[in-house]
Every structure is written in C-alpha cells, then in structure tokens.
Amino acid sequence: MRDTDYHNGRDDHRSDAHRFEWSDDPALSIAVIEAVAAVSGRDPLEIEPLNRYVDPDALDDIFERDQAPSTARGRISFPLEEYLVVVHSDGEILVYPPE
Fold first, then answer.
1. How is 32-48 classified by DSSP, letter by letter?
2. Per-residue pLDDT reduced to its tens digit, 43-97
3. Cα–Cα–Cα angle for 78, 4, 20, nearest 5°?
C-alpha cells in the first residue's frame, strides 16, 4: 500500500487524509488495520481489533471485487480508534487523523 497526503477534496471531510490503495492482497480488513497503523506510526498488532468497530468479514464481503459488478460504486466510513476510515469501492482507503 502507498500512503500519500490527500488534499484533493474528494470527500466532504477534512483534506488532511492519508490515502492508500488496496488491491485485493491482503484482505481489505487487514489493509485497513495496516493503513491506520501506518498513519499512527504503530505496529498493526497495537491497533485495536477491527471487530470492535465494524464486522471485518462483512467489510471484506462488501468490497470483494470478484463478487461485485465492475460498475458498482460505493463507500463505507467508520471510526477506528480516534481515526475516521473511508473505504471506496475502487480500492481507495482514506484515513483521517484525529481533529
């Protein structure tokens, strides 16, 4: 995954997000944990379990690329610790640091 400061204003949220690209490997739920760990400067094992915030299996299933038509578009957002995570159907993961 690649982390870049994101100031394009794609979302209505603040523009200080860190942007990651997800490509199916690892699973999306793992990629989200890795993204938050990268932004926080911590080891992924130090991040709270994702299932305290969202069902990891459901997250993986919703955005599983083999199951969704290529024209399907959507996004889901949820808190993870003090961060806001926004996952787009095109594989973009945005992690917004605490305000």
1. HHHHHHHHHTS-GGGSP
2. 999 999 999 999 999 999 888 766 555 566 789 999 999 999 999 988 899 999 9
3. 45
Q: Which residues of 63-99 are buried (b: 16+ CB within 10 A; e: fewer)?
A: beeeeeeeeeeeeeeeebeebbbbbbbebbbbbbeee
State the Cα–Cα distance between residues 24 and 8, nearest whole angstrom.
24
Contact 28, 88 (CB under 8 A): no
Query: What CA–CA distances, in Å, run from 95 to 20, 41, 69?
Result: 8, 13, 26
**Residue whose tokens read 């919703």:** 62
Q: Specify the pTM.
A: 0.80
